[in-house]
Amino acid sequence: MHHLILALTVTPSPDPTGTLRPGLSEDQVTPGTWGFVLTAFIVILTTFLIVDMVRRIRRVRYRAQVEEARLAAEPGEPAGAGGTPDDNDDAGSGTR
């Protein structure tokens, strides 16, 4: 019950005149232009990283599907047998 009373109490509103406490400047309380620029940069960089990660995961999934289809089409070769030279080229490279 005590928590409900605390939750319903009104918090004091900020000073309506908009002045800061003595000894504080606007630069000490707000992030300013550099804070905005750095935050925007981090958001854009994170977005590009996520898009790249999704693209790489999708590429790996498609390659696995193609490999499964290729193995299913060749019933004479046992699973785990050596592959073609193209398989060895893809193992070391991250791009295609």
Description:
- With 96 residues, the chain is an all-alpha fold.
- The chain contains 4 helices and no strands.
- The protein has a domain at 44-74.
- The radius of gyration is 30 Å and the shape is elongated.
- The model has no long low-confidence stretch (mean pLDDT 78).
Topology:
Blueprint lengths: L1 H7 L17 H4 L2 H42 L11 H8 L4
- Beta fraction of the residues? under 5%
Helix/strand class: mainly alpha
> What value does the Rg take, in angstroms?
30 Å
- Quote the distance from N terminus to C terminus: 64 Å
Number of helices: 4
Q: How much is the average pLDDT?
A: 78
Could you list the spans in which at least 5 consecutive residues all have pLDDT below 50?
Answer: none
Approximately how much helix is present in the residues?
55-70%
E-strand count: 0
Shape: elongated
How would a textbook summarize the main sheet? Answer: none
Provide the succession of SSEs.
HHHH
Core attributes:
64% helix; 0% strand; mainly alpha; 96 residues
Short synopsis of the structure:
The protein is mostly helical. Helices cover 64% and strands 0% of the residues.
